[in-house]
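Forwarding the complex inputs:
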Amino acid sequence: MVRLTHNPIDYHALTEAVRGPHYGAVALFLGTVRDLTGDQVTEFLVYEAYPPMAEKKMAEIEAEVRRRWTVGEVALVHRIGRLGVGEVSVAVAVSALHRAAAFDACRYAIDTLKELVPIWKKETAPDGVGGWVHPTSELRNAECGMRNKDTIEGDAQ
Amino acid sequence: MTLTVHLFARARDLAGSDAVSIDVPAVATVADLRLALTHRFPALGDLLARSAVAVNHDFADDLRPLSAGDEVAVIPPVSGG
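Prediction (whole assembly, two chains):
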Protein backbone atom coordinates (compact mmCIF):
# COMPACT_ATOMS: atom_id res chain seq x y z
CA MET A 1 0.00 0.00 0.00
CA VAL A 2 1.39 3.39 -0.93
CA ARG A 3 -0.16 6.80 -0.36
CA LEU A 4 0.41 10.53 -0.35
CA THR A 5 -1.66 12.42 2.18
CA HIS A 6 -2.29 15.98 3.32
CA ASN A 7 -3.40 14.70 6.73
CA PRO A 8 -1.34 13.71 9.77
CA ILE A 9 -0.03 10.15 9.41
CA ASP A 10 -1.70 7.78 11.87
CA TYR A 11 1.31 5.54 12.39
CA HIS A 12 -0.44 3.42 14.98
CA ALA A 13 -3.18 2.54 12.50
CA LEU A 14 -0.55 1.98 9.82
CA THR A 15 1.34 -0.41 12.07
CA GLU A 16 -1.88 -2.28 12.87
CA ALA A 17 -2.62 -2.49 9.13
CA VAL A 18 0.58 -4.43 8.41
CA ARG A 19 0.40 -6.69 11.48
CA GLY A 20 -0.94 -10.19 11.10
CA PRO A 21 -1.00 -13.61 12.78
CA HIS A 22 1.46 -15.06 10.27
CA TYR A 23 4.12 -12.44 10.83
CA GLY A 24 6.49 -12.45 13.76
CA ALA A 25 8.06 -9.10 13.04
CA VAL A 26 7.02 -5.57 12.19
CA ALA A 27 9.51 -2.81 11.39
CA LEU A 28 8.31 0.80 11.42
CA PHE A 29 10.33 3.79 10.25
CA LEU A 30 9.12 7.33 10.89
CA GLY A 31 10.72 10.41 9.42
CA THR A 32 9.98 13.48 11.54
CA VAL A 33 10.60 17.19 11.17
CA ARG A 34 13.81 18.14 12.99
CA ASP A 35 14.27 21.52 14.66
CA LEU A 36 17.97 21.92 13.85
CA THR A 37 20.07 21.10 10.79
CA GLY A 38 23.60 21.92 11.85
CA ASP A 39 23.13 25.38 13.33
CA GLN A 40 20.15 26.17 11.10
CA VAL A 41 16.84 26.42 12.96
CA THR A 42 13.74 25.10 11.18
CA GLU A 43 10.35 26.64 11.95
CA PHE A 44 8.37 24.48 9.52
CA LEU A 45 8.70 22.51 6.30
CA VAL A 46 6.49 22.46 3.23
CA TYR A 47 6.51 19.20 1.29
CA GLU A 48 5.46 19.13 -2.34
CA ALA A 49 5.08 16.10 -4.61
CA TYR A 50 4.52 15.29 -8.26
CA PRO A 51 1.64 13.04 -7.19
CA PRO A 52 1.12 10.60 -10.09
CA MET A 53 4.84 9.94 -10.46
CA ALA A 54 5.48 9.85 -6.72
CA GLU A 55 2.79 7.23 -6.19
CA LYS A 56 4.04 5.24 -9.18
CA LYS A 57 7.62 5.23 -7.86
CA MET A 58 6.42 4.30 -4.36
CA ALA A 59 4.45 1.39 -5.85
CA GLU A 60 7.60 0.30 -7.70
CA ILE A 61 9.52 0.37 -4.42
CA GLU A 62 6.88 -1.85 -2.81
CA ALA A 63 7.11 -4.25 -5.78
CA GLU A 64 10.90 -4.36 -5.50
CA VAL A 65 10.68 -5.00 -1.75
CA ARG A 66 8.37 -7.92 -2.45
CA ARG A 67 10.74 -9.23 -5.13
CA ARG A 68 13.78 -9.10 -2.84
CA TRP A 69 12.34 -10.22 0.48
CA THR A 70 9.58 -12.47 1.70
CA VAL A 71 7.40 -9.96 3.48
CA GLY A 72 3.81 -9.79 4.60
CA GLU A 73 2.38 -6.30 4.27
CA VAL A 74 4.22 -3.18 3.11
CA ALA A 75 3.03 0.39 3.68
CA LEU A 76 4.68 3.59 2.46
CA VAL A 77 2.97 6.88 3.30
CA HIS A 78 4.35 10.37 2.71
CA ARG A 79 2.73 13.54 3.91
CA ILE A 80 2.65 16.69 1.81
CA GLY A 81 1.85 20.27 2.75
CA ARG A 82 3.03 22.28 5.76
CA LEU A 83 4.53 20.36 8.72
CA GLY A 84 5.73 21.75 12.01
CA VAL A 85 8.71 20.55 14.05
CA GLY A 86 8.14 17.03 15.39
CA GLU A 87 5.45 16.06 12.91
CA VAL A 88 5.73 12.81 10.96
CA SER A 89 6.56 13.38 7.29
CA VAL A 90 6.97 9.79 6.17
CA ALA A 91 6.17 6.32 7.50
CA VAL A 92 7.30 2.93 6.25
CA ALA A 93 5.91 -0.22 7.88
CA VAL A 94 6.82 -3.77 6.89
CA SER A 95 5.77 -7.08 8.37
CA ALA A 96 7.62 -10.34 7.82
CA LEU A 97 8.08 -13.77 9.33
CA HIS A 98 11.29 -12.72 11.08
CA ARG A 99 13.01 -9.48 11.99
CA ALA A 100 15.87 -9.57 9.48
CA ALA A 101 13.60 -9.29 6.46
CA ALA A 102 11.44 -6.68 8.15
CA PHE A 103 14.44 -4.47 9.05
CA ASP A 104 16.19 -4.89 5.70
CA ALA A 105 13.08 -4.28 3.61
CA CYS A 106 12.10 -1.24 5.68
CA ARG A 107 15.60 0.23 5.35
CA TYR A 108 15.66 -0.37 1.59
CA ALA A 109 12.22 1.19 1.15
CA ILE A 110 12.99 4.44 2.98
CA ASP A 111 16.46 4.77 1.43
CA THR A 112 15.07 4.28 -2.07
CA LEU A 113 12.14 6.62 -1.44
CA LYS A 114 14.53 9.39 -0.41
CA GLU A 115 16.62 8.78 -3.51
CA LEU A 116 13.99 8.41 -6.22
CA VAL A 117 10.52 9.61 -5.32
CA PRO A 118 9.67 13.10 -6.66
CA ILE A 119 8.95 14.86 -3.39
CA TRP A 120 10.63 18.08 -2.26
CA LYS A 121 10.82 20.01 0.98
CA LYS A 122 11.08 23.72 1.52
CA GLU A 123 12.59 24.87 4.79
CA THR A 124 11.57 28.02 6.57
CA ALA A 125 13.50 29.45 9.51
CA PRO A 126 11.94 31.59 12.28
CA ASP A 127 13.10 34.75 10.46
CA GLY A 128 11.21 33.66 7.34
CA VAL A 129 14.38 32.80 5.42
CA GLY A 130 14.47 29.48 3.70
CA GLY A 131 14.25 27.69 0.42
CA TRP A 132 13.80 24.46 -1.45
CA VAL A 133 16.22 21.68 -0.59
CA HIS A 134 17.83 20.18 -3.69
CA PRO A 135 20.71 18.04 -2.46
CA THR A 136 23.79 17.43 -4.55
CA SER A 137 24.58 13.81 -5.37
CA GLU A 138 27.75 13.94 -3.25
CA LEU A 139 25.76 14.87 -0.20
CA ARG A 140 23.10 12.34 -1.10
CA ASN A 141 25.71 9.61 -1.32
CA ALA A 142 27.10 10.63 2.02
CA GLU A 143 23.54 10.26 3.33
CA CYS A 144 24.36 13.06 5.71
CA GLY A 145 22.04 15.13 7.78
CA MET A 146 24.58 17.93 8.03
CA ARG A 147 23.62 19.67 4.82
CA ASN A 148 25.63 22.66 3.71
CA LYS A 149 23.71 25.88 3.52
CA ASP A 150 24.60 26.13 -0.15
CA THR A 151 22.41 23.16 -0.93
CA ILE A 152 19.43 25.19 0.18
CA GLU A 153 18.46 27.23 -2.82
CA GLY A 154 16.40 29.92 -1.25
CA ASP A 155 14.30 32.85 -2.25
CA ALA A 156 16.19 35.06 0.15
CA GLN A 157 19.78 33.91 0.25
CA MET B 1 5.20 20.09 -31.64
CA THR B 2 4.28 21.79 -28.41
CA LEU B 3 4.75 19.99 -25.11
CA THR B 4 3.50 20.97 -21.70
CA VAL B 5 6.31 20.72 -19.16
CA HIS B 6 5.52 20.47 -15.46
CA LEU B 7 7.87 22.19 -13.03
CA PHE B 8 8.30 21.69 -9.30
CA ALA B 9 9.94 23.26 -6.26
CA ARG B 10 12.82 25.64 -7.07
CA ALA B 11 12.45 24.97 -10.82
CA ARG B 12 8.88 26.26 -10.68
CA ASP B 13 9.95 29.34 -8.74
CA LEU B 14 12.70 30.11 -11.28
CA ALA B 15 10.38 29.68 -14.27
CA GLY B 16 7.53 31.52 -12.58
CA SER B 17 4.98 28.85 -13.48
CA ASP B 18 4.13 25.24 -12.61
CA ALA B 19 3.49 24.32 -16.25
CA VAL B 20 4.94 25.82 -19.41
CA SER B 21 4.37 25.15 -23.12
CA ILE B 22 7.60 24.47 -24.97
CA ASP B 23 8.03 24.12 -28.75
CA VAL B 24 10.41 21.40 -29.90
CA PRO B 25 11.05 19.96 -33.38
CA ALA B 26 8.57 17.32 -34.60
CA VAL B 27 11.29 14.74 -34.07
CA ALA B 28 12.81 15.56 -30.71
CA THR B 29 14.47 13.97 -27.72
CA VAL B 30 14.75 14.91 -24.06
CA ALA B 31 18.05 16.62 -24.94
CA ASP B 32 16.19 18.91 -27.38
CA LEU B 33 13.68 19.72 -24.68
CA ARG B 34 16.44 20.62 -22.22
CA LEU B 35 17.93 22.97 -24.82
CA ALA B 36 14.58 24.63 -25.50
CA LEU B 37 13.93 25.05 -21.77
CA THR B 38 17.35 26.62 -21.22
CA HIS B 39 16.72 29.10 -24.06
CA ARG B 40 13.34 30.06 -22.74
CA PHE B 41 14.35 30.21 -19.06
CA PRO B 42 18.07 31.00 -18.79
CA ALA B 43 17.76 31.23 -14.99
CA LEU B 44 16.77 27.56 -14.93
CA GLY B 45 20.09 26.47 -16.45
CA ASP B 46 22.15 25.47 -13.41
CA LEU B 47 19.34 23.67 -11.66
CA LEU B 48 18.14 22.05 -14.91
CA ALA B 49 21.59 20.57 -15.42
CA ARG B 50 21.25 18.86 -12.01
CA SER B 51 17.65 17.82 -12.63
CA ALA B 52 16.15 14.70 -14.13
CA VAL B 53 13.45 14.74 -16.78
CA ALA B 54 10.43 12.47 -16.49
CA VAL B 55 8.30 11.33 -19.40
CA ASN B 56 4.96 9.77 -18.56
CA HIS B 57 5.97 9.38 -14.89
CA ASP B 58 9.26 7.58 -15.54
CA PHE B 59 12.79 8.98 -15.52
CA ALA B 60 14.02 9.52 -19.09
CA ASP B 61 17.59 9.92 -20.37
CA ASP B 62 18.59 12.52 -22.95
CA LEU B 63 18.18 10.11 -25.87
CA ARG B 64 14.56 9.36 -25.10
CA PRO B 65 12.33 10.41 -28.07
CA LEU B 66 9.36 12.63 -27.29
CA SER B 67 5.86 12.35 -28.73
CA ALA B 68 2.96 14.77 -28.80
CA GLY B 69 0.82 14.07 -25.77
CA ASP B 70 3.70 12.92 -23.57
CA GLU B 71 3.50 14.16 -19.98
CA VAL B 72 6.86 15.77 -19.36
CA ALA B 73 8.25 17.06 -16.07
CA VAL B 74 11.46 18.54 -14.73
CA ILE B 75 12.48 16.71 -11.54
CA PRO B 76 14.99 18.72 -9.48
CA PRO B 77 17.06 16.72 -6.98
CA VAL B 78 14.52 15.27 -4.60
CA SER B 79 14.39 15.86 -0.85
CA GLY B 80 11.47 13.84 0.46
CA GLY B 81 11.59 11.68 3.55
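DSSP finds four helices and eleven strands in chain A.
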